Amino acid sequence: MEAQTLVALPIVLAVELSPGHALSRPTLSRDEAAELAAHVAADLHALVPQVEQARLALAGALFDAVELLRPGFPVWATLDELARRVPRGHLENVVAFGTHEGHMPAQPLEPDPIYADGPMRFLPLSLLVPKDLAQALAEKLEVELVGRGEAGQRTADALIRQLGVPLEHVRYFSRNDVLALTCVQYEHVNLAPLWLLLEAALLTPYREEATMTARGLPLRYLKGEVRVQSPARWLAAQTGDPGQRAHDLAGIVFELRQYAALLGAHGIAMQLDEVDGQVIEGGLIEHLEQPHPGFDAPTLVAHEAAGLGVIAVTVAQRGDGGMARALAHAYPLAPASLGPMIALLAERYGTASDLHALGRVVLDAQGRLGAPATPLH
User: Fold this and answer.
1) pTM of the predicted model, to two decimals?
2) What's the rounded Cα separation, in Å, for the pair 234 and 141?
């Protein structure tokens, strides 16, 4: 097999914890991973005997789906790379990677504790198959894992003992199955457009993909990132009652926060589209104009919405006649981003970092995101 080109077929062992239980640790030791891999190999051989011609690689780590479904599939890529280094015949062609002194052999195989609370965990597996057998085996696996993919009793018992928690289900899925499950989950919570972007980033990263959120905010995937229309520009294109438009803007920012959090979890960056934009961790900034030296010092005003807190920060400067003009808008998409965002705006626009809370969303005479008509003190 070493002289042949090997194709990696990615699969997972999906572990559903019993209600009310959580993992005390997300990884297995080397010995535990090796024991589990032997049981997995027996399961897969019983399902699809042709796997005897493949090399099975197992990572003794349990991930959330968002950690596995990232551009380039780094967890599987790392597992495959490590497995290819092991000579044929090692452990009867079953290779397992677990922790040594508390650490996995490579950083991408370390589950992030921030995603540790989900009830469904995925342990990555890979079958390295000679190229001439890969397509037939992949097709066979897709069929058999869907229909008969429940893990064997020895495999389930080993996991229960190793993890120390009761399990509801333990079964095998192909990576395509994990993609399909995630798609259904996002569609169920009205985030089908997000899945369209994620699918493009994972499967066709060379192609541009455009979509729109349920509330009508345009997004597009391009060159490894998602570009989103500025909420202020979206607002400027709307018509109707100012109160309703302010309410709709809050809904747009709420949606944007959902998208930013999930795309970030999947390792996909977001930035503003077609504006002078700036990205900070957990937030987006839209720069509009430079301060006018003959006008008042800029001020920072916070637009607020019930249940969402600060949805935007506007840098405003008063000029002739007391009219305020917007120099920049910033959108905090995560709670921790507001402080750094204020500091950055204050430094860039040469003003105090005092944030004037408005208690509402303020629109100017043209219905755009703005500042109050009277000075703030």
Assistant:
1) 0.91
2) 46
